[in-house]
Give the backbone structure.
Amino acid sequence: MTTDVGMPSVLSPEDAERAVLLAAPRGYCAGVDRAVVTVEKALDLYGAPVYVRKQIVHNKHVVADLESRGAVFVEEIAEVPQGATVVFSAHGVSPEVHRESAERGLKTIDATCPLVTKVHHEARRFADDDYDILLIGHEGHEEVEGTAGEAPDHIQLVQSPADVPGIVVRDPARVAWLSQTTLSVDETLETVAAIRERFPLLLDPPSDDICYATQNRQLAVKEISPDADLVIVVGSANSSNSVRLVEVALDAGAKTAYRVDDVTEIDEAWLEGVSTVSVTSGASVPEVLVEGVLAFLAERGYPDARAVHSAEESLVFSLPKELRRDLKAAGRS
Ligand code: 2E7
Ligand code: F3S
């Protein structure tokens, strides 16, 4: 059970020695919900197996659950049998992946988050105008590979301010920046400031690339961190936004902060001498995993969690159009 407190959240002196603070918002964002429901409905409609290119979202429990229902996760399109159905993950794919899929005669369902698609459009627009595009993000992340693939001749990756002195562009007056959607807001501001110092005519993206869910979860963890002896972030190791939450918690004053995939990864020793535990979860994390952590804390004498609200979210995305069309044709929409 949780009780609610509004902002600002501070522990009053009469608070018991122990407290559990629960960030709100946390967990699933609109893009993850849409992607997971897409695979579930595809399984329902077409039957197993449904192939999924890469992890649909970066959470090992979500992937294991869908696997148990008949989803087959592959790394590359070449692993999908000709003519089969394949879902593209929420992180997006490059045009090259669309081409390979078409060549293989695959039926594709694109679960790319619409907020990533927006960044792809921005990349194409800047490239069409022949700008050099500095994409701020983490090398090897699927989202970055997909976005960079929109205009490989125009885009170069910038991972941190340390990369900025080494940037080479064709014309310092025609430089724009874009970013991965799940970065630390504060670190990205630093990187942009360093880029702008070198290229004062730098063009900004038309709107924020770091998405609303990333921003809200970072805001929320900042609220529950200054009072925390321990912050537990639920999320998988390859989940960029979850890993960022640990860093943001520590920056915001948490004494310690750990990421766990689920309750089984909590080390009892973390609780030694700990009065206030704060809990949050990444955008790809099912709420049941947070509930497991709260139950663990309750069993060890911590009181019911207090939800600390720092933003309201109501965004919902419609399912991919290819799936909506097939659901409608089957009379299941
Ligand atoms: C898609 C996008 O799956 P995640 O853990 O992904 P990250 O990018 O944080 O590793 O979280 C949901 C999600 C976030 N961004 C899905 Cl582009
Ligand atoms: Fe989309 Fe942001 Fe979620 S990019 S998938 S809404 S974390």
About this structure: The CA atoms of residues 20 and 26 lie 15 Å apart. The first strand starts at residue 2 and ends at 5.
